[in-house]
Every structure is written in structure tokens, then in C-alpha cells.
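Notes from the 1:1 (GR / supervisor)

We went over the backlog. Supervisor wanted to see one worked example end to end before approving the batch request, so GR pasted a single chain during the call. The sequence is below; no edits were made to it. Supervisor asked that the structure be written out right there so they could see what the output format looks like.
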Amino acid sequence: MPTIVLADDHHVVRQGLRTLLEMEPDFSVVGEAADGLDVVDLVDRLRPDVLVVDLIMPGLNGLDIIQQVTRHCTRTQVVVLSMHANEAYVSEALKNGASGYVLKGSSASNLKQAIRAVMAGRRYLSPPLSEQAIKAYEQKTRDTRLDPYHTLTPREKEVIHLAAEGHTTSEIAGRLSISPRTVESHRRNLMAKLELRTQSDLIRYALRRGILSLEE
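Structure output shown during the call:
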């Protein structure tokens, strides 16, 4: 029986997904997370067969969650459930290790098909997404310069997410169980790598990069 963890910051969405998936006799939802920083630890502890994750999460976004989960929990397959249909998001999710990508506007059967497909070792993209469109996008962007975001360490990515959400140095230190001085060091390093100077620069960058969303 495939075990599943749900990661979405909306309780109603998670509740609906749990109800939907547990209608299938061979699916078992074993855990839920509303904060991106909790997802990797939860997956590491529960070792589910499948993680269903949104791209926009507080604390740590879905793309970074996917990268960490697929690196540390290789048996867990990742299915993205997102409102974002453009090729950039889909391509990044697949490059980071996701095996399935389902749009939130899709039918319930699409998500079930995605879970069954990734469990069988196949990749799944819900309509109107297509492998051809993703390959065309990747070909078009193959020669572009390295995204500076990819030079950040995992800890720096956690700090930028929390800082962009408006958390203070002390709050970030508490969330990550590190000292305020260490937080400031990570912040200086990431600001230099991304060529940002102010908190306003950081917020604009976070919105542009998809770390923050205006969808709320």
C-alpha cells in the first residue's frame, strides 16, 4: 500500500486531499505538513513512498524541498501539486527531482494517476503540460548563465526564505536552532551572492524567484 505525505500550507487543501486519496483502498496518507521547514524532517522520519507538495510554502519553498527530499530520501517519489503551469516552474521541479507535476485545476483522477505513475517508476505531467513543451523550454534556456540562487547553501536558502517572510534575526535563529550571529553571517553571504543590498531588494527578489507569492 503506497504511503503518502501531504505538504501544503492550506489546511482545507490538505484535508480535501486526504479525503480524496483515502477513498482509494490502496492509498494511505501517513502525514501532513504546513511549513516547508518541517517537510524534509517529516519525510525523513516517515519515509513515505510519495510526497505530494505545493511549490509555494512558508519557510522553504517546494523546489528546495524537492531537492532536499530526493537527495536524502531516495525511495520517496515527489509529485508537485501547483497552480503554476508555466514551463519554468515545471522544468525546475523536474530538474530538482520531482517525478510528477499536477495542476491544481486538474481533475482528482489526474492526481491519483500521477501517484500510481511515479510509484511505477514513470514520470507524469497532467494536461495541458507536455514533455515536448518542457524539452523545448530546457533547450531554449540551456545556454543561459548559472542562476546565482543555485550557489546558495541549503542553510542560506532557509535564511532567505524566512528573511523574505519578514522574520527577525532572532526569530530565524530560533526556527533554525542556530545563533543570531550565524544567521547574520548567512544573510551577509547570501546577499553578496545574489547582489542584493536592502530588505526591499530581498523581497523583490523573493517575489521574482517564486520564494514569496502574492496569491494569498
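Supervisor's comment: The first strand starts at residue 3 and ends at 7.
Batch request approved.
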